[in-house]
Amino acid sequence: PFYRAKGPWSAFSNFHIHTPFEFEVPEWCRPDGFPTTARLQFAEAAIMLCKAALMQDRATFDALLCCETPADAKQLGRCVEQFDSDLWDAAVCSVAAAVVEQKFRKVPGLREVLVDSGSKLLAEATRNDRIWGIGIDVDDARAKQPAEWRGSTKVHQ
């Protein structure tokens, strides 16, 4: 298990700051007139870009292009206009897959981190997140026991 940008598996966190890469906004979530790519240095911004694009919120999309920290991106994502939870719920796993795939394929050195993880089961460990994480803190013994996990761990499905 990992938590945010801490420890040996921090590269798997959406808050991990890495070399910028050209994120291709998936066509299926990008309205006409929105940029097709964005140069990003953390996955949280890519996820929130997709969220803003799906909801056709160009102002938030543009603001996300300029955010400097993952926390800023997360906060902007909470402010997406015309948010449709059913639409987001239907798309979020595809968004996560697209973001993670591009991040590990395009950022130098991250492919090797992924390969080096071998057959380990990777999951974000925090009691504060049952959607993207396991709902248990990283230092809790249950974090190493998937049967004890309380979250949906969408990023790892």
TrEMBL record:
<dbReference type="InterPro" id="IPR037238">
    <property type="entry name" value="YbiA-like_sf"/>
</dbReference>
<feature type="domain" description="NADAR">
    <location>
        <begin position="2"/>
        <end position="152"/>
    </location>
</feature>
<protein>
    <recommendedName>
        <fullName>NADAR domain-containing protein</fullName>
    </recommendedName>
</protein>
<dbReference type="InterPro" id="IPR012816">
    <property type="entry name" value="NADAR"/>
</dbReference>
<dbReference type="Pfam" id="PF08719">
    <property type="entry name" value="NADAR"/>
</dbReference>
